[in-house]
Each structure stands twice: as C-alpha cells, then as structure tokens.
Write a structure and sequence with these properties.
Helix 4 runs antiparallel to helix 6. It is globular and about 65 Å long. With 339 residues, the chain is α+β, with helices and mostly antiparallel strands. It has 2 domains: 70 residues, Phosphorylase Kinase, domain 1; 259 residues, Orthogonal Bundle (Transferase(Phosphotransferase), domain 1). It has a 5-stranded antiparallel β-sheet with strand order 1-2-3-5-4, covered by helices on one side. Helices cover 39% and strands 13% of the residues.
C-alpha cells in the first residue's frame, strides 16, 4: 500500500507489460463517492499536461460498488511528506528543489485555468496532492473535487464548500462562491509552506501563530523581516534576493481579496524570471572567477521596470528592479515550451 486518505487507499500495481502504476481504490461513499469518481475520470481523460498525473485507466462495478482508478506511478511521495514527514526530516529539500517544485505545480494549475477548454478549478490544491518524481519534478493530482469554471458573465460558482482546512480561500469558505482565483490562494499557501517549512495549520505553535497565512501576512509586509519566514532547515543557504521575490509572489497569491491575486499564468512567468535571474547570477559569478575566458555573447536587456502582475497591490511592483533579465525572453521561451 502506498497511502491512505479520506478517499480510500492507494496501492502499487504492475500492468501486463511491466509498467508500474498506482491503483486508487475509492472508499464506498454512496452517491458522493460515485460522483467524485466520475468527475475524476472525466477530468483526467481530457486533461493532458506534463505536470498533471496521468490517468491510465479505470474500473467500475455497480454490483460490488467498487471504483478503481489507475494512474501512472509517481514514485517519490508527496510534497507534504517531504516538507512535514520523515523524508524531509532526514533529507530536507534545498532551495533549488523547492523552486523546481513550485514552478512545476504552478504550471499544472496554469494549464487547468488558462489552457484547458473549458477552464477547470481544482478545488483541493494542497501539498499532499503534489506528487514528486525521483528527480523532484512535480505533478498535480486528485481531481475528485474539481469543477468546470463558469462561462459567460458569471465569474464564480455557488457550491458546497469542499477542500482542506488551511488551504481554502476566504471568499469560498465564507460565501460558497468558488472562483478560479480560489485555487490561486491555495497555491499561495503551498508556496508559503515551501518558504517556511510550516504546515498550513499547526496547533502546536503559540497562540496567533497556528495559521500559516495569518502568521505570515504581517511579516510579508515588512521587507526587513522577511528572513524570519525562512525554513530553518535551509540553514540560510538560499539567494536572499530570490527569497524576497518569491515572498512577494506568495503574498500576492494569498491576498484577502480575490481580485488582487495574480493569475497562475502570471505566477509561472514570475517564477521563471526568478529562475532566470538565479541562473544569470550564477553564470556571472563563474565568469568573474575565470578571468581568462571571454564573456558570453548572450545579452540580457532590461525590460523589467513593470511587474508581471496585472492587478492587485503588487501590480506596480517590479520583482527585478536591479537585474538585467529579459522578461520578453522568458515569456517567449515559455510559450515555446508550452509552459
């Protein structure tokens, strides 16, 4: 058995051709359980992206009330296990690995929101639903609660509040109005987990610090305090400027007002700019330590006086005021890659 949750159990299996797979055996949940099974089959049958877990097949029997889902095996566990379980305690994730996971997960959500037709709202995005390959590339999983986004003039769905405490956006929790931006909030919580190493809700912390977003918000507003957020297991081994930039992205994602949050496409572009900045600084450092080599002919034009965010309190804030990183180059490269 690979794992167990409210949905049922997950087992490891092998197909006739020797391909290892994960078999999810859904617990008998009556009408609701059957509905979630059908939603997941329907969603994953038409959603195809490198950062989404692939559905291989399914089995359903009304006679025995048995529903089985067969997925590709993503063998390195969940992000939750690596951040909050024994895996992470023995071998903490380093900064670069955390940023790789953050970008992959953002790409998966951006595909659901912006590239699938019609748009899909995941509704249960969280660290335990981000599965990791052996090279720590990430795939978003578990679409049992997913909803098709409304089309036309309506920008929200009125639906029973579902999801996981600590990840649910405030407007959804309070009104039952589900928005595409509700997923963005959940992503922001996961990004804060990657930055801090904390769980979304942890009652072992002192009063006022139990909820991750509530604790982090005032610190995110003070540039001089941002390093208080850093996971102690990083041991200070992260680029300070990049940490500040990712904090800015996280703060925008968990904004109280949904309209002030960025789109997931904007988050992907911003994280790619952080990645490009880090690579550029590393190459410059290498060049400076090897003075006999000619400088690379690659040029980086400064086109970063404007923010990647089109709305909200961070729309006028540049993440890259002092870096010669080409925003145009990042965007065009990303389109070429298909995110």
């Amino acid at each position: 058995m690979l794992g167990e949750g409210g949905f049922g159990r997950v087992f490891k299996g092998v197909l006739n051709d020797g391909t290892p797979v994960a078999i999810k055996k859904l617990s008998s949940g009556g009408h609701q359980g059957d509905k979630e099974f059908l939603v997941e089959v329907e969603m994953l049958s038409r959603l195809h992206h490198r950062n989404l877990v692939k559905l291989v097949g399914y089995y359903s029997s009304r006679d025995s009330s048995q529903n089985l889902l067969c997925y590709e095996l993503v063998s390195n566990g969940s992000l939750e296990a690596w951040l909050h379980g024994p895996s992470g305690a023995n071998c903490p994730l380093d900064w670069d690995t955390r940023m790789k996971i953050a970008l992959d997960a953002a790409r998966g959500l951006a595909y659901l929101h912006e590239d699938s037709q019609p748009c899909v709202i995941h509704r249960d995005f969280k660290a335990s639903n981000i599965l990791l390959e052996n090279n720590f590339h990430a795939k978003v999983s578990d679409f049992g609660l997913a909803k098709l986004a409304p089309e036309g003039r309506a920008n929200y769905l009125s639906t029973r509040v579902m999801g996981t405490f600590g990840y649910v956006a405030p407007e959804y929790a309070m009104t039952g109005h589900l928005l595409v931006k509700s997923d963005v909030y959940s992503y922001g919580v996961v990004l804060l987990e990657l930055l801090t190493g904390r769980k979304p809700v942890d009652m072992s912390w002192p009063s006022g610090q139990e909820n991750l977003v509530t604790w982090a918000r005032p610190i995110l507003r003070d540039k001089d305090r941002l390093e208080e957020l850093a996971d102690p297991r990083l041991a200070g081994k992260y680029p300070k400027d990049d940490f500040l930039r990712v904090c800015t992205i996280a703060a925008a994602c968990v904004a109280s007002e949904a309209s002030q949050r960025p789109t997931m496409g904007e988050v992907v572009q911003s994280l790619k700019m952080v990645q490009r900045s880090s690579e550029h600084q590393a190459s410059m450092l290498t060049t400076s330590t090897r003075p006999n080599l000619k400088q690379s002919s690659t040029t980086y034009e400064s086109d970063c006086s404007s923010s990647m965010f089109s709305s909200g309190p961070f729309s006028g804030l540049s993440l890259f005021d002092n870096d010669n990183i080409s925003r145009t180059g990042v965007v065009s490269e990303d389109l070429h890659e298909g995110r």
